Amino acid sequence: MTVLVTGASGLVGSEVVARLLSAGHEVVALVHRVENLIGNNGRPLHAPEGRLRLIKGDVTRPDLGLDRPEWTNLAGGVDRIVHCAAITDFGRTEQLYQQVNVAGTQHVIELARERSTPLVHVGTAYVCGERSGTIAASELDLGQRMGNHYEESKLRAETLVRKAGADGLPVAVVRPSIVVGAARTGVVRDFKNIYVVLKLTTQGRVRSVPGHFDAMLDLVPVDHVADVVAQTVDRFTEAEGRTFHAVGGGLSLRDFSDVLAEFPSFHVPRFVVPSAFDPQRLPEGERAYYDKVVQLYESYFRRRITFDRTETERFMPVKPPATGQAFLRRLLEYALRAGYLGASLPGVDQVLAELRNRGN
Ligand SMILES: NC(=O)c1ccc[n+]([C@@H]2O[C@H](COP(=O)([O-])OP(=O)(O)OC[C@H]3O[C@@H](n4cnc5c(N)ncnc54)[C@H](OP(=O)(O)O)[C@@H]3O)[C@@H](O)[C@H]2O)c1
Q: What are the protein's GO molecular function terms (predicted)?
């Protein structure tokens, strides 16, 4: 098959491209500003026998910014579309999310409609907004309050996709939670989003964070997300009309606290009951970090949610990777090794080995 992947240079997109190539497909990668595809391991993607073609486009523009012949060729030349392109960082303007995440999705739907090409939309599990409890993959707009403009735009985008599906376009949706490093190694190409909060807290720049100890943060390894997307492409006939949560099992803030405390070089943030937290009382330096970063993520530290992944477990040929405390340790160990969270303090074995060496 030939598969078009939008957002192909992104964290998820590049891993999806890698899987599609190794499954023997041809890939047309829609790139925007970044024009090279780097895998999560930091290495450029290799395309055997010229099976990877890059085209430059912009999802915010009608016809993805392509000229008519290019658009027509693309519409007629692909068997599946995977839509990953989006603005994923927080704190951007509502208008930008609308242009890229909502209008961008509409333009991709239009491309798919030209030849009724099956469309796999990459959404987010957090379209659930500030609901609590167990979230079913089949649920979408229940009038929930959204946590931020990003979530709101992804809700609108998925609503468009579902509507196109109801009107006859073959669609499937994959909803990742918070995408982080690889399951086995913790390796991640981009330290973004949750990693920034981890950096500010573990460095002691932010010492108190409003949150409930039993709030759940759902971290999912990037390789699992890409596996679910690639399976959805490959087995689209089975996947059509379905929504898959590509999620971990969730970690409570208490789990976070306990694991962070195991690392001698880390400050462990104090999670303060939100009703008792007053940003005005923060020291000046900390207040600036709160306003610029922590505040954007704050609602995640209050949510008591779990994502139902029964549908994904039924669909996937293998069990999802474990994402408990041991996984969080791996993520942190990698971020330390990579220098993102500062240098780690030497462990006991290393100190004793050094003392022994000095004794010799
Ligand atoms: N990362 C997460 O934690 C997470 C969690 C849940 C869901 N998701 C969803 O998963 C998908 C992929 O996320 P990601 O983490 O891989 O994002 P990412 O690393 O930020 O990559 C986003 C991609 O979208 C492209 N893009 C942005 N604006 C564009 C435009 N106007 N036209 C065409 N392409 C454009 C970017 O290209 P340039 O950089 O060249 O502009 C980049 O390739 C998104 O739909 C996101 O909402 C991500």
A: aldehyde dehydrogenase (NAD+) activity
